[in-house]
Amino acid sequence: MAVARELLSRSPGARLCVLEREDRIGRHQTGRSSGVVHAGIYYEPGSLKARLCVEGSRALYAYCDERGLAYEKSGKLIVAVEDRELGRLDELERRGAANDVPELRRLRGEEIAEVEPAARGVAALHSPQTGVVDFVAVAESYAADVEQAGGTIHYGAPVSAVEHRPGRIVLRHPGGATSASTAVFCAGLWADRLAVACGAPKDPRIVPFRGGYLSLPAASASVVRANVYPVPDPELPFLGAHLTRSFNGRVLIGPSALMAPARDAYSLARVRPRDLAQTLLWPGTWRMAAQHWRAGAMEMRHAISRRAFVAAAARLVPELRGVRAEPGPAGIRAQALGRDGRLVDDFVVHRTERAIHIRNAPSPAATSSLPLARLIADELAALNATA
What are the residue ranges of CATH 3.50.50.60 in the chain? Predict the structure, then answer.
């Protein structure tokens, strides 16, 4: 939706349509995230994630102000619980400074309680500009912009096949066929399939990871003011068990990161043979498993045992020990995985004949949606210039 509104802002009067797989906006990653507006602390300086996240959070807050969309700058605390985590905290502080994350500051152990009274650690980073928002409401507002600018949105239109004709690209879907001069594929969990159908390389493959949350009971929710995160493992794109006060006021623990048997396995009982086969037959799956089996075993434990998951969060907030958390929402992360077993950590955009493909757009893609849309529109302009 962000790309569509960006293209129409550059070419008023252009004929543009959005083919949406589902019957409404935000059925997958957009509507199943924690809603955190990230500030740009974690990402390698110079990466697309680093640049677009910092630009994106600023642009997103401005957009919400302009449209009257509610958000809350609740802040984030990244806590080093043990001395051995201080080196990684130092690295996050370096990255945050290099990325120009606004108002980021280092806290000593005794200062942590000033931000989060129940949190404990030897040091922390505090990011007051981190916030929460309803990203479905943001996406719906983008969609309203598209329609106001003359674009059309067609729901229940999953693309089943792609054909190339002289000067055109044809997308087939249940409503028939749509012929266009160019197309942009922002297909999330199905991004690799559509890219390969257009002639792009098979590498990277989307491997779905199910992220399950726990929800604190109302009586315990006041223990956490905002967002409390551990110092993450730099080898993995996941942030570990953390606490998020979501936009609706619930306090969530999670998410876990468990390889899923379907690209829409919001329930673990859902298995799609094609999805599972593509994951298991991809060489990168087994290479990744060999590299990260310890992390995989821990994630499996968190997915199976609520008590173990709560205990992981209680490292940061000891008052949570013994709390009985309830099952919370679940989402699927469209994780791009290389043939070599490398978990692709940055945004990836590919070109094919008359098409642009967003092959990897993990967190903080929602935060970065406005500048990411500008980058994709620039890629499309370059593609058109060479066509």
Answer: 1-35+134-204+345-387
